[in-house]
Task: structure prediction
Amino acid sequence: MRLSSLDAALLDTRPLPFLAALPRPLLDLAYFTVKEARACLFAGLFFAAIFLVPRTGVLGLPRYDVLLIIAIAIQAWMVLAKLETLDELKAICLFHVVGFALEVFKTSPAIGSWSYPDFAYTKVLGVPLFSGFMYAAVGSYIIQAWRLLDVRIRHHPPYWLATLIALAIYANFFTHHFIGDYRWYIAACALGVYARTTVVFRPLDRDRRMPMLLAFVLIGFFIWLAENFSTFFGVWQYPDQLGAWSTVHVGKWSSWSLLVVMTFTIVAHLKHIKERIHVPD
Result:
């Protein structure tokens, strides 16, 4: 089945014949699960490459360089196949730049939060260029899920306030090395700002609702799981994983959840998405 045909089937409000007999809660869960998996297309293909490309590289090309080529190829295919628009590509490129800047800072000798131990031709300031696509994958997921699940946002905070929270989150990733970690203060502010915000989504033909804050936390959890797999395969390493692999500290879950808040704020400024966000007067 072509991907366009799959998308058409998923967007059809009539259930597939072999699923029609399911009880309503299971039917919605089945469609929600498949649509979520489909929304993870870029992330799924990219992380499959991370797990499958040998650490020794391919045909003499280092692993990080191979991953960069694969990531660019996936992104180009999604645009050419009209799975993403050029405006969405611009937002994804912004995620790449934002993520790469953070990577450069975090892996610098003075900070050393984590490292990329392998050689690559496409390393810039010690960071392989493919790393920015890991952040872009989160943005791609949100954009795809928005369309497939017919997402709408109710009681979104004013854009200037949401942007201020997003900037504070991003700044804290840098400044906490010098003036203290204000993550939980920022999280408390985000909790207040998004307390009334609700995500309305449609697995099949009926609207369902979820608190926006719960969505941030759940997405952050799955990113934390992906991070554990990536460090297990040695794509990057934290200082406490240099001797032997260990689970990434659960505190990173909160960092990823806050990063999702920032990512969502960028996506929310896309014109066709902004039209479906309700900001109370």
Remarks:
- Strands lie at 123-124, 127-128, 152-154, 198-201, 208-211.
- The CA atoms of residues 102 and 219 lie 20 Å apart.
- The two ends are 46 Å apart (CA to CA).
